[in-house]
Amino acid sequence: MPSMTRAEAEDFLYREAQILDDRLFDDWLPLFTKDGLYWIPIDETKPRDQSVSIIYDPPLRREERVHHLMRTRFPSQSPPSRTVHLISNVTVGAGVEAGNILIRSNQVIYETRVGDFRQTGLGELRTIVTRMEHVLRAEDGALRIALKKVTLIDRDLSVGILAFII
Amino acid sequence: MEGGIIANNAIDGLVLDKPHTFRVHTKAYTDREVFEAEMGRIFEKTWIYVGHTSEIPNRYDYKTSYIGLQPVIVTRGDGDVINVFVNRCMHRGAVLCREAHGNAQQFDCPYHGWVYTNDGKLVAVTHKDEVGGYSADFDQPKGLFKVPKVEVYRGFVFASFNDAVQPLLQHLGRARTIIDRRLNQSPEGEIVLRSQPFVARYKGNWKFQTENIVDDYHFLFVHRAFVDLQSKYGDTTGNFGLHPGGNTAEMRKQRYRGNVWGTPQGHGILDAQLGTLEPLLTGRFAEHYKVLKDKYGEDELAWIAGRGIISMFPNMGMIHQQIRTWRPIAPDLTEVTIYPYALKGAPDAYNEGVLHAQERFYSPAGYGATDDMEMFAINHEGLSGRAVDWVLLERGVDTDTVLESGDVQGKPSSEACMRGFWRRWRQLMSEA
Fold first, then answer.
1. Chain A residues whose beta carbon lies within 8 Å of the beta carbon of residue B194
2. Could you read off the pLDDT of B4-33 as tens digits, one per residue?
3. Which residue, B242, B281, B317, B389, is most buried by CB atoms nearer than 10 A?
4. Which of these CATH numbers, 1.25.40.10, 3.40.309.10, 2.102.10.10, 3.30.70.100, describes B48-151?
5. ipTM for the complex?
6. DSSP character for A122?
């Protein structure tokens, strides 16, 4: 039965945040279990087969997202974003499934685009406000993310372009 | 409701339409006076899509919407009558509805408590008989301002502030055929808007979206990274056949076929028949397609299952399995809402597959729409270079064929669809 202190949970989240803020997205992938899901719902109460999410990434979709960010060029990340994650209100509890750990946190992400800061859409500081749930499970000798669920406070409003990883 | 202060002869100079040439002046996108004029001369003069009946399925359901900058409420009343009202109390002007949708038999003004029924009648003026209240001769408003023209075509609710607007079917013109074909993908001929929409704003003019939804030319450039993803991942990550062709050459071939239309009503259309029905009639959803084949025949099914993309004048579109609207907020600010829909009576797995394929491309974190919206902002930024007068929209100008209906048929990758929009734009903008 894996367990985790709040300090350990915070360390886990800090490590993930550092990988994302350093844009080392290839290192983000193995933080997940083999079946891990990265999910940003719009309305989590609606059945999946009837409503869209902002992101619903099972493993191959996550790999594709990282490939897209790291090895292709596209307008909404040319020039790319810089992000800083601030993590707060961390609590640790049991996951729904036996042996899982649920970390809840509030995360505020600041984002800006580099490049010619005088131009529209660049050089503006955006604030992305979220509540997150990380469900962790032991796999291959380490606790890994079985589910990362990000609930944006403005999920069903105009969220703007989110072409990076939250 | 005057259309701003810009003079008609100033409008004439904004669209350069002559042999071998078609150009639009930078000001037509960036100028505040032009924008003000558009709100009056276009958005208050023509039909505007305000919602779909499946969004308000029950009696007393309502949703809010916009006609240009004007907030409206779309209601379903007794006897399934659809009304559209200006979302404004007749007393001091506060908006009545602060929710985007709901069910209400009456609307109470949050300011001084005036009460209106779902069909717009003013039924209570509060504290009317106080000493300091209203005169015995008070010319009391009868009710909410009702948008005079409302017509529904196959669930699509259109409204117009213009009493003399042409009949809706005349306005739809050739676009009607495309709407019919999109809806006939459902064995019941109906669609349902049940998913949450995607909403995003971009810092650019609304007409960039009008043009871009029927712009085949941009795809391989703006969406080059997506083409790379398709080459690598194909249908394994949920494309579900939405964007056919697994590499650049094949995707180009798929896009550069069929017809490009610019219609006299200002609609832009891309359509193409499916080359072969065989994969559909023997594939996973064969039963679904056989039903459609029996109903419409093979030739029409090849249209129904083929391409049919509309940029409906001025600010609504249909592509894949979605209705899209773009709401002008300012000359350089636009809000895009994408409503994915389900085909009534189609297999659940089919609807789900298309829904999530659209999520992959059109979400604010997706691989397509994000780049389009970035492009609109880039485009608007570039137009700040106003020393350059013209935007060029003359691809294929010499290959246009004018039909008796007034529809202009262009060749694949041509900008005939944008020229149709701008000709109608100039016409309406010149009728102050």
1. 50-51
2. 567 777 888 999 999 999 999 999 999 999
3. B317
4. 2.102.10.10
5. 0.96
6. S
